[in-house]
Amino acid sequence: MRKYQIIILFAMIVSCAERHSPEKISEDNGQVELTIDYTAIMVLGTMQDAGSPHIACTRECCADLFDNPTTQRQVVSLGLIDAENNKTYLFEATPDIARQMKRLTRYGNKGERELADGIFLTHAHIGHYSGLMYLGREGMNARSVPVYAMPRMKGFLKGNGP
Predict the structure, then answer these.
(1) Cα gap 117→108, rounded to integer Å
(2) How many CB atoms lie within 10 A of CB 53?
(3) Contact criterion met (CB below 8 Å) for 45 and 77
(4) How does DSSP classify residue 55?
(5) Alpha carbons 100 and 61: distance in angstroms, whole number
(6) Hey, what's the torsion of the CAs at 143, 144, 145, 146, to 10 degrees?
(7) In this structure, are residues 148 and 119 in contact, taking their beta carbons and an 8 Å threshold?
(8) What's the start-to-end Cα distance of the chain, in Å?
(9) What pLDDT, in 10s, does the model give residues 46-80?
């Protein structure tokens, strides 16, 4: 049920936003930098929680990925850009959080900050919260990062969190 509520929320946000094309601001080394000046949702990953290639996978779909990994296949995550208020929000703290956060903040707040303004956790599968460990002392050493979760998950994180 909660999944459907989240999907409806995203649909409402997207449908209410004015449609604009992103504006090209520079092109260096074959990479195009964009600025987003409207409310937008970015798909930052689409893979299952355990990533890709899947651990111990012997299927054809994984075979080549062990020898030739790709950074394009990242665990499911979304970014919300609120350009009017210069805020960014990350949905899911995955093991790929470093690349996902960089991509979100690069486009969302024009590179002024390295950290989103908040992280939403939709549910307690490990691939949706394990990226929080990178915010700890051994990683970013971030302080007071707002994390939004349901009460049971909040209790779990307070008692066991990184």
Answers:
(1) 11
(2) 20
(3) yes
(4) T
(5) 23
(6) 170
(7) yes
(8) 29
(9) 888 877 888 888 888 888 888 887 778 888 999 99
DSSP 8-class letter at 75? B
Token pair of 161 as six digits: 């969190």
Per-residue burial over 72-89, b = 16 or more CB atoms within 10 Å of its CB, e = otherwise: eebbbbbbbbbbeeeebb
pTM for this entry: 0.74
**Amino acid letter at 83?**
A
3-state secondary structure 143-157: CCCCEECCHHHHHHH
Pick the closest to residue 91 from 75, 78, 76, 105 (CA basis).
78
Query: How would you class 44 by CB atoms within 10 Å of its CB: exposed for 0-12, middle for 13-18, buried for 19 or more?
Result: buried
Write b or e for each residue in 107-140: b if 16 or more Cβ atoms lie within 10 A of its Cβ, otherwise e. bbbeeeeebbbebbbbeeeebbbbbbebbeeeee
User: Which residues on neighbouring strands pair with residue 24, listed in sequence order?
Assistant: 34
